[in-house]
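User: Some background: our group keeps a shared notebook of sequences we're curious about, and every so often someone picks one and asks for a predicted structure to add to the entry. Today it's my turn. The entry only has the sequence so far, pasted here. Could you supply the structure so I can complete it?
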Amino acid sequence: MPFSNYKNIAAVAQEFQIKYILSDFINELELAVPQTFQAELELLFTDGVVDNSEDAICENLIYPVLKEVWKMYRKKLTLWSHQTLTYDENLSGQPDYIVAKRHPLTTVIFDKPYFLVVEAKQDKFVEGWGQCLAELVAVQKINNDLEQTIFGIVSNGQVWQFGKLEGDIFTRNIISYNIGDLERLFAVVNYVFQECLLQLEND
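Assistant: Of course. Here's the predicted structure to add to the notebook entry:
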């Protein structure tokens, strides 16, 4: 069934025999926030409509943060937006964002392995994590690598939550991060991208 049919972590954990734990695994890696980025975000919050839909959340809040951090990693990793991901008829759909290995021929080839899946939700974090974990399971099966760590993010644009799937263990970070503290949020997203790159280079 589509990823969106999974409404909570328990549904995915039971179907795919995933252990679920809560633990703070994030190591913040400092990354300067450009003043132009800060100013643009403040303009959006002051004069824009940033969160009236999940599409708006993606375009105004989530993608800009991901893109700004991804720029440092663009030679090795590709940031995909709303690209279809299919393992089988039970695990298929369109995550909001996916970070994958950059294909050596061109950026338009959707290459595996995949490292990071991002879901935007309007304050439906329980549902968001059900969907995101199903996507992580699909990625794990597509990559055919139980030793790989695959990261997941669920965000309503303001609050960002992080998790990871390793083998049959899903860990959700206890601490959530807020876009109001951009320096810490950038540091966390930078950590995730760095971990993705390290796995790619060590493969």
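Suggested note for the entry: The chain is about 40% helix and 25% strand. Strands lie at 19-22, 77-81, 85-88, 91-93, 97-101, 114-120, 149-155, 159-166, 169-172, 177-178.
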